Amino acid sequence: MHDAAVVVPSADAASTRTGGDRTRAATRPGTTAGPAAAAAAAAGAASTDAGSEGATILSPTTLSLSERRISVIGANGSGKSTLARLLNGLVEPTAGSVRVRADAEAPWLDTVHDGPAVRRLVGFVFTDPGAQLVMPTAAEDVALSLRRTVKGKRERRAAAVETLDRFGLSHLADRSVHTLSGGQRQLLAIASVLATDPAILVADEPTTLLDLRNSRMIGDLLMGLPQQLVVVTHDLGLAARADRTLVVDDARVVFDGDPRDAVDFYTEMSARP
Ligand SMILES: Nc1ncnc2c1ncn2[C@@H]1O[C@H](COP(=O)(O)OP(=O)(O)OP(=O)(O)O)[C@@H](O)[C@H]1O
Ligand SMILES: [Mg+2]
C-alpha cells in the first residue's frame, strides 16, 4: 500500500511561477489519508494568470493517491500534465497544498515549502527524453543524477555504469546521447531519474514518441517498478494495467476508479458528439 495527501479547494488564490509560466491555483489543505508504505500525492486547482480572470486549467480537486500504480487518461488539453506536474512541484498550487511522503512513517512534504526534498522524493519523466538528458554521454548523464549520493568521480562513474547495466544500457555508456534511438533515450532518461531512487515516479506520456516494441518495453518497466508510479498516457492498454485510473476532462477528474471501467468511461465519453 501507498499513501497520499488530500486537498480541498478554497477561494483564496495566489500566484506562482513555473518555468516562466505563471499559473494560479486555488486549494486549501485537506485531510491526510491513512497509513501506507510509500508515496502520496494530492492536487488542487490551477488557473492561468493570463487575464484578470484567468482560465481554469485544473479545477478544485481532492485526491488521495495511495495505490502503487496509478494511470491518468483524458483528452488533449484536459489537464493531465498539470495534475502530474503538481505532484513534484513543477506546477505549484497557489492556495491549499499538495503533499507527498516516502512512506507511512515519513513526514509529509509540501511541494511548495519543501521543494528540493519533494523533487528528491518524486522523480519526473517527460514525454521527450531530450528535455532531461543534459550531459554528452549516457554514463555522464546518469553520473549527474548521482552527484549528491556518490561523491568520488571514479565511484560515480562505476555506479553510473552499474545503473546503466540494470537497464541493459551499459554498452551505450560512452555513446553520445544524440546518437541513441528514441527508445534508448527514453530508457536512459528513466534510468537517470531512477538512479536517485525516488519513492515516487511521475511519468508524463513516457511512451508517446516510441514504437510499439519500445513502448511495450518501457510500459513493462514502469509497471514493474517497486516505486509508486503515476503515469499519464494516451495508451489505454498501458493505462488499464494500473491499479487505479483517473480520467481527466475539461480540467476536472471526472472518473476515478477501476482502470478497465475508466477506459470504458473515457472511450464512451470520447464517442459522444
Ligand atoms: N502555464 C500555463 N499557462 C497557460 N495555460 C496553461 C498552462 N499550463 C497549461 N495550460 C493550459 O491548460 C490546459 C491543460 O493543459 P495540460 O498540459 O494539463 O493538458 P493535458 O491534458 O496534459 O494535454 P495533452 O494530452 O495535450 O498533453 C491546456 O489548455 C493548456 O493550454
Ligand atoms: Mg500533457
Automatic annotation (TrEMBL):
Keyword Lyase: no
Superkingdom of the source species: Bacteria
CDD domains per record: ABC_cobalt_CbiO_domain1 (cd03225)
Keyword ATP-binding attached: yes
PROSITE patterns: ABC_TRANSPORTER_1 (PS00211), ABC_TRANSPORTER_2 (PS50893)
Pfam families: ABC_tran (PF00005)
Domain ABC transporter: 40-271
Name of this protein: Energy-coupling factor ABC transporter ATP-binding protein
Source lineage: Bacteria, Bacillati, Actinomycetota, Actinomycetes, Micrococcales
Keywords: ATP-binding, Nucleotide-binding, Transport
Chain spans, region Disordered: 1-34
Entry's Gene Ontology cellular component terms: ATP-binding cassette (ABC) transporter complex
UniProt record similarity statement: Belongs to the ABC transporter superfamily.
Low complexity: bias regions: 1-18
SUPFAM superfamilies (UniProt xref): P-loop containing nucleoside triphosphate hydrolases
An annotated Gene Ontology molecular function: ATP hydrolysis activity
Coiled-coil ranges (or none): none
